[in-house]
Amino acid sequence: MKIIHITKDQKLSLKRSIDAGTEEQRKIVREIIERVKKEGDQALYEYTKRFDGADLQSLHVSKEEISRAYEAVDKEFIDIVQEAAENIFHFHEKQKKESWFYFDEKGTMLGQKLTPVDAVGVYVPGGTAAYPSSVLMNIMPAKVAGVGRIVLVSPPDQNGSLPAEVLVAANEAGVSEIYKAGGAQAIAALAYGTETIEPVDKIVGPGNIFVALAKREVFGTVDIDMIAGPSEIVVLADETAVPHEVAADLLSQAEHDRLATSILVTPSIKLAKEVQKEVVAQLADLPRKDIAAASIEQFGAIYVTDSIEEAVGIVNQLAPEHLEVLTENPTGVLPKIKHAGAIFLGRYSSEPVGDYFAGPNHVLPTNGTARFSSPLNVDDFMKKSSIISYSEEAFRAHASKIAKFARYEGLEAHARAIEARLEKRGSDRNE
Amino acid sequence: MKIIHITKDQKLSLKRSIDAGTEEQRKIVREIIERVKKEGDQALYEYTKRFDGADLQSLHVSKEEISRAYEAVDKEFIDIVQEAAENIFHFHEKQKKESWFYFDEKGTMLGQKLTPVDAVGVYVPGGTAAYPSSVLMNIMPAKVAGVGRIVLVSPPDQNGSLPAEVLVAANEAGVSEIYKAGGAQAIAALAYGTETIEPVDKIVGPGNIFVALAKREVFGTVDIDMIAGPSEIVVLADETAVPHEVAADLLSQAEHDRLATSILVTPSIKLAKEVQKEVVAQLADLPRKDIAAASIEQFGAIYVTDSIEEAVGIVNQLAPEHLEVLTENPTGVLPKIKHAGAIFLGRYSSEPVGDYFAGPNHVLPTNGTARFSSPLNVDDFMKKSSIISYSEEAFRAHASKIAKFARYEGLEAHARAIEARLEKRGSDRNE
């Protein structure tokens, strides 16, 4: 892991170009979507056979399959999932907003009515990427928002099964329906509906390039979440940080993906050198050391700054997905942090505490997008309607100004709609 | 305007396919973006000459130009803009959320830190589409959110000027910088920056197909707002509504655009017939009657239902941009309305009241997207960072569960990052 002395004026960024897919991949995705639109379930069965090797009798996961999943997993796993689900529910409940109104002395009422989205689809990738923690993190904000129908889709294995851990986590999170379908075909089914799967209004959850491209294609018909990039951690530390803990945290991110980014920013050259040594030592016996080493080699870095203030400046430039603050007084640094998906304060807030357990969502903005986007949250599953209720008194007080503004913009029918309320006419029942 | 008797089970939708541009248009847009990235200001000057016919000396609008704009417009226009700006400010201020935290008995602190986006770009179309009300509506939520830098871009006329009304509205709304640049080149400049224009983090505001395609291209590098479709109004009315007022409101939407949609939903066949007659009568002498008549002819409709409940069901299916409720007790209907961008209650809340003056935003979800999206609002210009601060006590209480969950997901380095805090090692300064 290279140590780089950095000056105030250096421009840094975590932005990488997003994989927009090849022309060939986009064509395949468009074809799949068109076939699902036209042929419905039949297309899902055929694609599942072709891509996942499973000859399904039914797309729908039955209650019996969910019961069997509970028998297949450790009792301890269920306990931990339940405790994590409780923490996640609690944190997300605090986010929930209510409709609000205010009134003025003329009898005007203005406000926002908040309503949940009717139906949400959650995509869960297949194979080793089927993380039960992601199932909780994607379903529970929708559940807390009050979404009435939450539909999980995931590609089955060759035997036509979904992982027991995924079924248990989904059930604990409060899923409404689960279907065996993956790839672009599952996204198309969620957006346009088939005989078996009713369409939804919003689709969330990570997936491979075909899933990502399909989400982009159906965006507008339904809403989608962010397209996630590789994971990132930035550790902001001073000389009070413990080197082997810092190194362990950097590696926990690096093991995710060869493309993951792990960065230490510190004014302490001593810490920098010790962490550098610890990373090498700890890498040696990691099960996923090939992945972690590749990530550290290509994207890892230790930036040494002149001061902690400059280090904070670097953090705000990078706008990382995960930020750990391992300084003498972490809360003292917090007001200066402008851009980060999740901020972990102090040595007992190691990043995995947030990944699984604490309650805040682990679906976070990557790729520098923490400059303008947020962790997945309850607001993502609710929408606002403006409420405008003018009294006759308020209307008469302002009507001429409103009509004038309309005419300034050349919109005569707008002005006349206002003036229609001021006229006395034969068709006016209220006269 | 045709009257259609409708039954409960009929499926209706306002969704129309979104103009995704031709392959040729997309190619042009990508070329423009690449040139602006490479050549910066020089490309902006050349494109402005080619597309807008203006030979600019400077991209930046000076303080003197803004002063001259105030002299060029009516005093009354300034007064109305100021009063509207005050109302808009007031309504949007009520939306502003604060950072929040909570604590547990083990000393854990969890919460969300809310911060404004650093810099926002607002696109204002040229020519007759340069509405000062839109300038207010796009800038002010960002201002209220606390965005430090708000940059307006708009294509100049052949003399290299922007409309005085736009400059006055922008200044009243609190703009930071104004530049003369339009089309895809202006979007590229906002996303990637040039010598004169620093890049922003988010771009909002309507534009033609080239602007819309450019926004799609730069999405990810910066955030963008929704791509707006043609305007829509649905009037939900019973026999107490005043026919000539209903007709005037339908026409005020129809005059916007040949593609606009104006729909009346009512259980009253009497009202339906009277409104139908009034629409014809009022169309006759509208200045924009060609546009309004085309819109009414192609997309206008009067749906007659069996009951007011069924009419509400139709409204929720349509999920309109604007909804007027002209029934005996409009507030009584409100709880049943699930999907609408803005809801206008009662006869004195004619839709133009909200367009210009009342305070709620007129940038609203179109094309059925009110099922999952919201009016432009302060939250769109703020983002959340999760805060996780675990105490040693809380950490020790949960560490083994967190490590176990990590190992269930096959992520050993995650488990070790947790366990690193439990070890005693030589490099641990705290021992």
UniProtKB/TrEMBL annotation, chains A, B:
Pathway: Amino-acid biosynthesis; L-histidine biosynthesis; L-histidine from 5-phospho-alpha-D-ribose 1-diphosphate: step 9/9. Keywords: Amino-acid biosynthesis, Histidine biosynthesis, Metal-binding, NAD, Oxidoreductase, Zinc. Its cofactor is Zn(2+). It is an enzyme of class 1 (oxidoreductase). Binds 1 zinc ion per subunit. The keyword NAD applies. PROSITE patterns: HISOL_DEHYDROGENASE (PS00611). Zn(2+) binds at Q253, H256, D355, H414. Gene3D superfamilies: 1.20.5.1300, Nitrogenase molybdenum iron protein domain. It catalyses: L-histidinol + 2 NAD(+) + H2O = L-histidine + 2 NADH + 3 H(+). GO terms for molecular function: histidinol dehydrogenase activity; NAD binding; zinc ion binding. Its EC number is 1.1.1.23. GO terms for biological process: L-histidine biosynthetic process. It comes from the Bacteria. Substrate binds at S231, Q253, H256, H322, D355, E409, H414. NAD(+) binds at Y123, Q185, N208. The active site is at E321 (proton acceptor), H322 (proton acceptor). GO terms for cellular component: cytosol. Belongs to the histidinol dehydrogenase family. Catalyzes the sequential NAD-dependent oxidations of L-histidinol to L-histidinaldehyde and then to L-histidine. HAMAP family: HisD. This is Histidinol dehydrogenase. It comes from Aeribacillus pallidus. The lineage of its organism: Bacteria, Bacillati, Bacillota, Bacilli, Bacillales. The gene is hisD.
